[in-house]
Design brief:
By secondary structure, this protein is of the alpha+beta class. It contains 5 helices and 14 strands. Strand 5 and strand 6 form a beta hairpin. The chain is globular.
Length: 218
């Protein structure tokens, strides 16, 4: 059974050389397989290497899939994000991911962080209906990853978190109206009943750069 705690799951990593983290590809494959089966249009699963002390992203220099003596480069974003390809054959063959870090931080500080979020291509032309669909699919992925039993123990899915390109100022919060909630990091929290606020967000020309689940601890 796989549980995705809140919007993320921190997984342990194994370490090899001084600047290289080695990860089991089967971990990535399991989550990608869920997305493949669900075939959702609006959401995806993202894999990040995050410093467990200050929550900053661990800078990636290179990443590759390793299987016996075969090394295949994989896509990545230098700012901590891994983009491995989907291959059941590589999973069966016990492939590993070798990730070389570009910064000098301690390897033991970098954890693999897995989060469900809206696809970057779907962050444009947001409206109430599209936001509702994104919310429904985010919740669906969380429950699917948790399994038949685990889904009953997940924190309550309250809605979505909108990470904006710029933190809201008091004037903008006032223009959005009463009842607007923000997280400690400035994310805008929208319950399922307040998705219509996206219309006001659009009028204020506020750029949404990430949408993730908003979960409440039970």
């Amino acid at each position: 059974m796989r549980l995705l705690f809140v919007a993320m799951l921190i997984l342990s990593t194994s370490f090899s050389q001084a600047s290289t983290i080695t990860l089991n590809y089967s971990v990535f494959f399991g989550y990608m397989k869920t997305m493949y089966k669900l075939d959702y249009a609006y959401v995806t699963t993202a894999f990040y290497l995050v410093d467990n002390t200050d929550k900053s992203l661990c800078t990636i220099k290179s990443a590759q899939m390793v299987m016996e003596n075969v090394h295949e480069p994989i896509l990545f974003e230098p700012e901590g994000r891994l983009l491995p390809f989907y291959s059941d054959q590589h999973r069966k063959d016990g492939a590993l991911l070798e990730v070389e870090l570009a910064d000098q931080r301690a390897l033991s500080n970098c954890d693999l962080q897995i989060t469900v979020m809206a696809k970057e291509s779907e962050l444009f032309d947001l409206n109430e209906q599209k936001l509702a669909s994104i919310s429904e699919q985010l919740e669906g992925v969380l429950k699917k990853n948790a399994g038949m039993i685990g889904k009953y123990f997940l924190p309550t899915f309250a809605g979505v978190r909108l990470h904006l390109s710029n933190t809201l100022n008091q004037s903008q919060i006032a223009m959005l109206g009463d009842g607007v909630s923000t997280a400690s990091n400035g994310d805008l929290l929208l319950s399922k009943e307040s998705f219509a606020l996206i219309n006001k967000i659009n009028k204020l020309q506020l750029a949404v750069v990430r949408i993730t689940p908003w979960m409440l601890n039970n």
